[in-house]
Specification:
Layout (H helix, E strand, L loop, with lengths): L2 H6 L3 H11 L7 E2 L1 H8 L3 H14 L2 E4 L2 E4 L4 H10 L2 H16 L3 E7 L2 E8 L15 E2 L5 H9 L2 H10 L13 H14 L1 E5 L6 E7 L8 E8 L8 H17 L7
Antiparallel strand pairs: 1-3, 2-3, 4-5, 4-9, 5-6, 7-8, 8-9
Helix pairs in contact: 2-4, 3-4, 6-10, 7-9, 8-9
Amino acid sequence: MSASEQDRNISSSFAKGLAVLAVFDAQTPSMSLAEIARRTGQDRATARRGALTLVQAGYLRQDGRMLLLTPRVLELAGGFLQANQFGRRVQPLLDHHATSLGAEITLAMLDNEQVLLLAQSTVDHGPVTYGFTAGARIPLIHTSLGRMLLACLPPDQAETLVNSVAIPRYTEQSIQDPAAILERIAQARQDGLVLTDGEFESGIIGYSVVVSRPGDTPVVVGSTAPRGLSAPNQPETILQELQLCAAELRQAGAVEAL
């Protein structure tokens, strides 16, 4: 099918409506029509039609001038999670290894130049929690999950992506030089694991390993721990637990459909 034939089969109105849903996040849980138009790049009339359609469909609610997501949007994610049997094949494994580790474990993939969290397990009284949930997005360059995902890409694709995205400074340890970042990515590609030290959150070390097989959609698991945490949660112990978790996820075929 040619590009022009594909274009004729695409509903631009539907795509614009999805763009409205996508602009809501933790920083902007409610927005006016003007804000939605600005963030989606749509004109005011188009954004208004899309937003009011979503209100009528039950995915947005209106509170005065502000619009907010409703719980009904969970149906969209729930269908994906159920279709891929996350409740049976993913969550129990994350829970098991998080309990063994005594810290959260997160499953993530690369999506639109960000890290998309697919599932997360936490434990009571774990050492670190950011309050992220499935569906949340976190930065690509300075997180262990993001850097491991970049390492899953061919070197030329990783270089293009690093050179095209913003490289903010979250902490004094955040690496700013693209060449230095690419060196870390190359090392992670060679090792099959990555460790970041205080680059996203001061005093917090991030760990991540690959889950997906070469050629498949990049998927990784990771965890975090405060710097200087005493045994048994030394880096080798954490990475070993993550590697066991990744191996069991592969064996269970938990990420093959992603």
